[in-house]
């Protein structure tokens, strides 16, 4: 599962930051997940216990913030949510679009005790 790999690399990144900052415990990890990132939020939640197992984040709470998949139609310029529009423009039905927002996954916040 792709999601587990994403989480594993995040745990490693955070571990480095935590060591540099001389912190020991992370209370909460907040991740922003774009609707067009290809990452399934539900899978992230399911994988979290496995990714955190036997790491310094074993007791860390995971919070996800979903970022809407906003795109702009290349034909008519309409801005819309690609997920709810079935990946075609609700105005002209074009499927050519540029992603404005929501194609990333990133660490938003690391809350330490
Ligand atoms: Zn259009």
As for the CATH topology, it is hypothetical protein PF0899 fold
Q: How many helical stretches?
A: 2
- Strand order of the main beta sheet, please? 2-1-6
Structural class: alpha+beta
Oligomer: single chain
Name the average pLDDT. Answer: 94
> Nearest-angstrom radius of gyration?
17 Å
Total strands: 6
Helix content range: 25-40%
Binding site for Ni(2+): 2
Keywords: Metal-binding, Nickel, Zinc
GO biological process, one term: protein maturation
GO molecular function, one term: zinc ion binding
Explained architecture:
It contains two helices and six strands, in the order αβαβββββ. α1 packs across α2. The protein is of the alpha+beta class. It is 28% helix and 32% strand. The chain is elongated, with a radius of gyration of 17 Å. The strands form two sheets. The chain has a three-stranded mixed β-sheet with strand order 2-1-6, with helices on one face. Strands 4-3-5 form a three-stranded antiparallel β-sheet, with no helix packed on it. The longest helix is centred in the N-terminal third of the chain and has 20 residues, at 2-21. Bound molecules: zinc ion (ZN). Zinc ion is lined by residues 73, 75-76, 78, 89, 91-92, 94. Residues 73, 75-76, 78, 89, 91-92, 94 line the site of zinc ion (ZN).
């Amino acid at each position: 599962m792709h999601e587990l790999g994403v989480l594993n690399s995040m745990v490693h990144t955070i571990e480095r930051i935590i060591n540099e900052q001389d912190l020991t415990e992370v209370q909460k990890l907040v991740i922003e997940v774009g609707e067009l990132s290809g990452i399934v939020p539900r899978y992230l939640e399911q994988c979290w216990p496995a990714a955190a197992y036997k790491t310094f984040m074993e007791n860390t709470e995971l919070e996800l913030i979903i970022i809407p998949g906003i795109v702009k139609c290349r034909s008519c310029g309409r801005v819309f949510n690609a997920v709810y529009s079935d990946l075609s423009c609700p105005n002209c039905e074009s499927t050519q679009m540029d992603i404005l927002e929501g194609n990333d996954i990133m660490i938003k916040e690391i809350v330490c005790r």
